Amino acid sequence: MAEQPAQRMFTPEHDSEVEAAGPPTPVRVIELLAGYMVSKTLFAAVEFDLFAAVGPEGVTTVELAERCAIPERSARAIADLMVDAGLLVRDGDRFRNAADAEAFLAGRGPFDLRPLARYWDTVSYPTWTDAATAFRTRQGVRAALTEAQTEAYEAAVALVTAETAADLAGAYDFGGHRRLLDAGGGFGTFVKPILARYPHLEATLVDLPEVAAAVTDQTAAGPLATRLTAVGADLFTDQLPGGHDAILVANVVHLFPPERIVELLRRLREAVTPDGRLLLVDWWRTDVAPHPSARFGAGEFLMISGGDLYQVDEVARWLSESGWRFVSLEPLPPPSGLILAEPRPV
Ligand SMILES: C[S@@+](CC[C@H](N)C(=O)[O-])C[C@H]1O[C@@H](n2cnc3c(N)ncnc32)[C@H](O)[C@@H]1O
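That is the input. Now the predicted structure with S-adenosylmethionine docked in place:
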């Protein structure tokens, strides 16, 4: 019998060429299993604002400890793992930010990913503790959010959806509409650029009371004060404001299981004017595999409240069950897309 090489749990180097030629090693599996340790270390680094603390000349672990107000052993442990992860670069006894850490995690670049890290750390991570229950039951497992968690969630959503919101304002012609209802509008990431582009338009944003109150605070003193009304309401149990000839539902459908979506679509159908339109913007599945940038979506949306990444044809079916007529799927930069629907006469 040919002698097999001794299998080792931990090997110093991950050599993919050797691995491709030889028998499999456990390295990749172990790295994936330990992924949460890397994430949690990175979350801690963001909480300590470690990447902002690293200046262009680099830092020692003593300086890092001082600037982040953490013990030096912790600074060293975090810095070592961040070097492994590629976010810090070791230069003798000094550490510098890698280019992407400097651009996205130091608060000095044009695009700041720290709000996303804070949301994943303080809301998403604790929720995923019950992932197996959610996958088994298709029920959401997220606990009610504190005020700080709501703020972290909405700030992260706003960050992630801002580009699509700008795309939609440019891609869809709101010129023929008079009043827009933004259902589950969050911090107003979608409605604000639309109102900026279409000065004749008025809008109502509906979201949970604490979110709507934050939007009212943000807009009270600005130019949108008279054109945007934020209403605190539950889309499933409260009366929805009427008189809107465009209803936008952006990144909300993915939060719910199919039967709840049909219920929501029915309620929106009752609220829309007869000449109105429904605009569903979301990360739709149009292909066998989800778009790579949406690959966490199906799990995350399930954890939150039993949702999923849905296929366009199933949404078209739910639209027809709830009194709408599917009009088209309009492209937006992936992974988003815009589904247009019209009310079917009753
Ligand atoms: C993923 S966010 C999308 C926010 C915004 N449309 C965007 O794309 O930036 C989903 C929003 O739906 C709101 N939401 C969830 N369930 C709701 C409900 N039952 N009633 C009202 N709003 C709800 C959340 O508070 C959150 O702001």
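The chain has a mean pLDDT of 94.
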